[in-house]
Amino acid sequence: MKGLTPSLLALLVLSSGALAADETNLVARIAHGEYLARAGDCAACHTAPGGMAFAGGLKMTTPVGAIYSTNITPDKATGIGAYSQQEFADALRKGIARDGTRLYPAMPYPSFAKINDEDMRDLYLYFTQRVTPVTQKNQASDIPWPLSMRWPLAMWDGIFREDGVYQPDTGQTAPWNRGAYLVQGLGHCGSCHTPRGIGFQEKALDQTDDAYLSGGTLEGWHAATLRGDTLSGLGSWSAEDLTRFLKTGHSDRFAAFGSMVDVVQDSTQHLSDEDLQAIATYLKSLPAGDEQPAPPANKPLALYTTDKGNPGGQAYLDSCAACHRSDGQGYRNTFPQLAHNPALLAEDPSSVISIILNGSRTPMTANAPTGLTMPDFGWRLSDQQVAQIATFVRNSWGNHATPVTAEQVKDLRQNSTVKPSQP
Hints:
It contains 16 helices and six strands. By secondary structure, it is mainly alpha-helical. Strands 1-2 form a two-stranded antiparallel sheet. Strands 3-4 form a two-stranded antiparallel sheet. It has a two-stranded antiparallel ribbon with strand order 5-6. A hairpin with a 2-residue loop joins strand 3 and strand 4.
């Protein structure tokens, strides 16, 4: 340092300290952006089976044809590498790509509109500076012309999109507001759990409308209501049940299934306990809809006998009782109980039909690493047999729900990989 004056030396030390602080701050921002990408479960839609992370190509069915998720890696030619931070924000909040193309609302930008500016910046830093670039062109949709034209989406946005970041409710606690921000925004829980309207829009975007999180059906699965309904919702769940479920994919009585398996594996298990508790606080604040009280529980079905009043009883004993037991209680922390299981009691029976046809599995998480698999039965059961079993489990052990028809099973089987057995 010969020749440096004390004042110049002090300036250099201060400058190097500032640069180190900026670098540390940048690393922290990128790490926070990765956490937010987990909270938003971006990988679920933007990573195809066997594909590169965030390179797109996942097929998603819609009522008018299939669409494919886009490449959101920082590749400059085929991804988002050329996006500015503002263009990135416009894509997430407004559904408008850098070239002005309107995105289909399968991209949950009506929810992502609520992401605040700080989180949006950190997400941008993560995707542009940490994610590995992948050169992979986006795939055109299978939607036929003229339905494939995107200019009408501008009108859809004008009617259904609500701009503006989440505004805290000063009448609620900090945990409630944090939970509401995550559920309504990055978590986009309403995309699956809120019913859709005639324009395929979510009927509500927050708790001010009773339709919000009251259950929705997509791609052959029914996402149950997350409101306080006792039979078909979260009325019988404690906040502790919810946080454990989101962390492990299990409560002591129930287990995640369908697309919720990937949500737990890729997203919620990675959230902090504080954020999971905030989500539970918010969800448990949602009131129930109009629901009838549960009828008295039925007596357990006697093993190796046929319940003459329920044609699916014998088939249940043959195929289901080994794991779920004849009394529908399952085995705690292992095989979910069917008695009073909200997933079975929704008006829409799509989920129970799909599980019987295609099977299911439980999430593999850090706290529950052994995933359990339910086999598919559609290959050896006819539509009528599946309908009888579904009707039986929806109306036994105190359950009470509408019967399932063979025609409903047939409709869902058409999009299944399994073929029916011969009657």
